[in-house]
Amino acid sequence: MHSQPPGATRRRSNAFVLLRFNLARALIRLDEPVAAIDALRESLRHGGTTMEPARQADIHANLGNALVQLGRFDEARVECAETRRFDPRLADWNESLLHLCTATSR
Fold it and tell me: How many angstroms separate the CA atoms of 38 and 42, rounded?
């Protein structure tokens, strides 16, 4: 039986999270927010609590942006709050974007 080196499973998990995150960012740019949301939520599920706070903040911020694209502002606010837990500076920028989008949609 072949044993894995220490940390191999975690590296694969981190690689999967990064792959899904990058896919989601590309999907957002291609105006495919629904698919991006699925990829971002999958990366949050897969990364669990072992993800670095900065990565979690990035994922929540991008999830909020995709939700804004769909006009799902209440859900986007929840993601802004999650972003704030991990990186308050990034959350401030995201909340400003959300306020701008909410104001222009009325």
Answer: 6
Domains observed in the chain: 8-104 (1.25.40.10)
Confirm if 98 and 80 have CB atoms less than 8 A apart. yes
How far is the C-alpha of 106 from the C-alpha of 48, rounded, in Å?
37
Token representation of residue 36? 């991006």
Helices (H), the chain: 8-29, 33-47, 53-69, 73-86, 88-104
pLDDT digits (tens, 9 = 90+) for 29-80: 999 999 999 999 999 998 877 788 889 988 998 998 899 889 998 898 888 8
Cβ partners under 8 Å of residue 36, min gap 6: 23, 24, 25, 27, 28, 62, 66
CA angle 79, 81, 83 (to 5 degrees): 70
Show the tokens assigned to 88.
């308050």
Place of tokens 């072992």: 50
Q: Residue type at 6?
A: P
